[in-house]
């Protein structure tokens, strides 16, 4: 099969080539998929995309006209694909679920620890041989209450890790995970209760019509003063403007994000020589209690290997006219946002 890989990054190419083992003809392009770059897919059978690519109605219409039959995601999240349109056009879409929930959950924990123990500030000081300890006080995680929003693959690993730290666990999900309740003492509560009681909130729900701006001013007002919020899911699950207000009025004590509402034009590129006009990211960047990572929670050896293998497996199945269990239907996400 001829596959065009959009948003291809140097670091992932060796993993994809290895998983492919010369079975399919892979072409790597650095541009993201959108309505303008869709033209590059002429002559291919399948496109492979990542989280910043946009498979919107107009883009999918073009892909269909260009003869594309399959879309293989190199991500678990698929909020960037309009599945209803893909189904109407008979374009099959498959994601790469469960490639390494550990990579993402461990990244969430590293954001939490770096913020709580003020490691960025400590390292900045050490660079100047300043080993003063003032203003570096953190808090023990032991006995703190952690609220996990979304207790699926990643959220459940997060819950288990935080249980290991001796934390009390609260959860919000539309489906309960019995193992977390029975073995790890997680209690499912309402969003309101989670926000009122959690010292730390970690977000692991997909972005869809129900979760868009799930964390907003009304809920932030209910949160414990000084709460730490970690978001490794998708940027628009939190309302960035409201979260900035919460940081400014000190309701939120610390924020760690691997994803950002307006990341599509910003992340995965070097903007260090530009004057950015995005006021949110400028404000967040200026706050000492905010830690921003550029969507690299998935960047581990194991995750990259698995993403590549799952993607090639999906292509293999389609090439042999077989279904893949990773295929997404419109009911996978009825409230898709794009
Ligand atoms: P998952 O599907 O295993 O878990 C998601 C959980 O959220 C499920 O238990 C589901 O029932 C729950 N949920 C869905 N809608 C909800 C709602 N309205 N309210 C409450 N709970 C709801 O997904 P997984 O693998 O844990 O991934 C979660 C998200 O993490 C992905 O959708 C993706 O956006 C993000 N992600 C981010 C990565 C990164 O590099 N930063 C990498 C991989 C995933």
UniProtKB/TrEMBL annotation:
Top-level division of the source organism's lineage: Bacteria
CDD domains assigned to the protein according to its UniProt record, in alphabetical order: LDH_like_2
An annotated Gene Ontology molecular function: D-lactate dehydrogenase (NAD+) activity
Organism phylogeny: Bacteria, Pseudomonadati, Bacteroidota, Flavobacteriia, Flavobacteriales
Stretches assigned to the D-isomer specific 2-hydroxyacid dehydrogenase catalytic domain: 4-327
UniProt xrefs under SUPFAM superfamilies: Formate/glycerate dehydrogenase catalytic domain-like, NAD(P)-binding Rossmann-fold domains
Keyword terms: NAD, Oxidoreductase
Organism: Lacinutrix neustonica
Gene3D superfamilies membership: NAD(P)-binding Rossmann-like Domain
D-isomer specific 2-hydroxyacid dehydrogenase NAD-binding domain mapped to chain residues: 109-297
Matching InterPro entries: D-isomer_2_OHA_DH_cat_dom (IPR006139), D-isomer_DH_CS (IPR029753), D-isomer_DH_NAD-bd (IPR006140), D-LDH-like (IPR058205), NAD(P)-bd_dom_sf (IPR036291)
Protein name: 2-hydroxyacid dehydrogenase
Alphabetized Pfam families for the sequence: 2-Hacid_dh (PF00389), 2-Hacid_dh_C (PF02826)
Family classification: Belongs to the D-isomer specific 2-hydroxyacid dehydrogenase family.
Keyword Oxidoreductase: yes
């Amino acid at each position: 099969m001829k596959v065009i890989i959009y948003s291809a990054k140097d670091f992932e190419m060796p993993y994809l080539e290895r998983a492919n083992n010369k079975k399919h003809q892979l072409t790597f392009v650095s541009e993201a998929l959108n309505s303008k770059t869709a033209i590059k897919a002429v002559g291919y059978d399948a496109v492979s995309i990542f989280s910043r690519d946009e498979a919107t109605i107009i883009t999918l219409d073009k892909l269909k006209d260009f003869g594309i039959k399959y879309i293989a995601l190199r991500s678990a999240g698929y909020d960037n694909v309009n599945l209803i349109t893909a189904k109407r056009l008979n374009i099959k879409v498959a994601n790469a679920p469960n490639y390494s929930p550990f990579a993402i959950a461990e990244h969430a924990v590293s954001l939490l620890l770096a913020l709580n123990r003020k490691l960025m500030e400590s390292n900045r000081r050490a660079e100047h041989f300043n080993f003063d300890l003032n203003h570096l006080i953190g808090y023990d995680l032991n006995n703190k209450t952690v609220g996990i929003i979304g207790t699926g693959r990643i959220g459940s690993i997060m819950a288990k890790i935080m249980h290991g730290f001796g934390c009390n666990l609260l959860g919000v999900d539309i489906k309960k995970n019995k193992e977390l309740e029975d073995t790890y003492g997680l209690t499912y509560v309402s969003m309101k209760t989670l926000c009122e009681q959690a010292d730390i909130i970690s977000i692991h729900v997909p972005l869809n019509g129900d979760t868009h701006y799930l964390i907003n001013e009304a809920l932030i007002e209910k949160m414990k003063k000084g709460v730490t919020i970690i978001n490794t899911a998708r940027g628009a699950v939190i309302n960035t403007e409201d979260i900035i207000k919460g940081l400014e009025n000190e309701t939120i004590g610390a924020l760690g994000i691997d994803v950002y509402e307006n990341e599509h034009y910003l992340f995965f590129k070097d903007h260090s020589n530009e004057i950015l006009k995005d006021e949110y990211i400028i404000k967040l960047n200026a706050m000492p209690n905010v830690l921003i990572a550029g969507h690299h929670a998935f960047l581990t050896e194991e995750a990259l290997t698995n993403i590549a293998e799952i993607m090639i497996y999906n292509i293999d199945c389609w090439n042999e006219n077989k279904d893949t269990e990773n295929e997404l239907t419109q009911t996978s996400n009825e409230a898709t946002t794009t």
